[in-house]
Design goal:
This protein is mainly α. 48% of the residues lie in helices and 8% in strands.
């Protein structure tokens, strides 16, 4: 019986057999209809978009707090075509009759 080098738990034939079995099982799982579990890494673009949205939300909150603290006006957070994080709100006054 041949001895295995240190750190090698299985002989090469056993490794090849295990890897072949794992590959067969992976293919079986991938071909199963309705398999919704993704085995790939999460999409990097989605991760970046989520991080950017969280950063913008934090900036909006800080800008809103600053505006309310240092101004007598009223502001709201809203997506703006021009990149504004907060927008001033002007109240509507009813005309006097």
């Amino acid at each position: 019986m041949a001895t295995n080098p240190p750190g090698q738990a299985f002989p090469n034939k056993a490794r090849v057999a295990i890897l072949a079995e794992l590959e067969k099982e992976r293919r079986r799982l991938m071909s199963t209809p309705g398999a919704s579990i993704s085995l790939s890494r999460p999409n990097l673009k989605e991760f970046r978009d989520n991080a950017e949205q969280q950063h913008i939300a934090a900036q909006q909150k800080a800008a809103l707090q600053h505006a309310h603290t240092h101004s007598s006006g009223f502001f709201i957070t809203q997506d703006s075509s021009f990149g504004n994080l907060i927008l001033p709100v002007i109240p509507r006054l009813e005309p006097e009759s």
